[in-house]
Amino acid sequence: MEQVINIALPKGRLGERAYEVFENIGYGCPALRENSRRLIFESRENKVRYFWVKPSDVAVYVERGAADVGVVGKDILLEKGFDVYELLDLGMGRCRMCVAGVKGKRPNPELTLRVATKFPNVAREFYRKKSREIDIIKLHGSIEIAPILGMSDVIVDIVETGTTLKENDLEVLEEIFPISARLIANRVSYKFKNEQIQAMCRKMEASL
Ligand code: PRP
């Protein structure tokens, strides 16, 4: 007998786009379309249960098995190194992890580089490979302000349209890696609900 598949979706635009894909391939849950503040939705007919969670928490629910699968940005997977299976690149939510700094200004290569970021592990790994000494300044948002105020030399952050950088007189100095949304699965679920998860994955791949 088919079991219910628990799916963690990131609240926001990416989650809504991802849900459309699930809906199109037969995992719709009509209640989810109703405007409400509920966070859990189930369709008994389609054997799915959805959770709306904070984007950076999706992989936590999946890693701990509260969700069987989830949709998460590659940036979060690389930053936190979750123990989950990455099944599919959904090709949506595309952006780039970049180093950026004040327009026309280049950091002094002789000095320790002060790096403001929400992604300390990504930044550390990037500069470790270059054997560049850095001082990480961990922030939680509006990273772009740090180099403008002279608190950091550069930022390591996500660039999507480039508008935030442009409007704050910053520019991309280096690209670290491209980012897109991934379908991930819990390791145990992947074993015990293997056929169902694989079928979902195949349908999803075909629909992209
Ligand atoms: C992200 C990122 C940039 C911005 C880039 O921030 O940290 O600030 O989006 O997008 P753009 O290239 O299209 O301008 P987010 O919106 O997550 O807000 P935050 O500053 O609170 O992290």
Mean pLDDT: 97
Portion of residues in beta strands equals 25-35%
Q: How many runs of DSSP E, i.e. beta strands? A: 11
Q: What order do the helices and strands follow?
A: EHEEHEHEEEHEHEHEEHH
Number of helices: 8
Structural class: alpha/beta
Give the termini distance in whole angstroms: 28 Å
Considering the protein shown, what is the CATH homologous superfamily of the largest domain?
Periplasmic binding protein-like II
Examine the coordinates and then state which fold CATH places here, giving the name of the CATH topology of the largest domain.
D-Maltodextrin-Binding Protein, domain 2
Q: Major beta sheet, specifics?
A: 6 strands, mixed
Please give the CATH class of the largest domain: Alpha Beta
The total number of structural domains is 2
What strand order characterises the main sheet?
2-3-1-4-11-5
Low-confidence stretches: none
Second-tier CATH architecture of the largest domain: 3-Layer(aba) Sandwich
Helix coverage percent: 25-40%
* Whole-angstrom Rg: 20 Å
Could you say which overall geometry the principal axes of the C-alpha atoms support? elongated
- Hetero ligands: 1-O-pyrophosphono-5-O-phosphono-alpha-D-ribofuranose
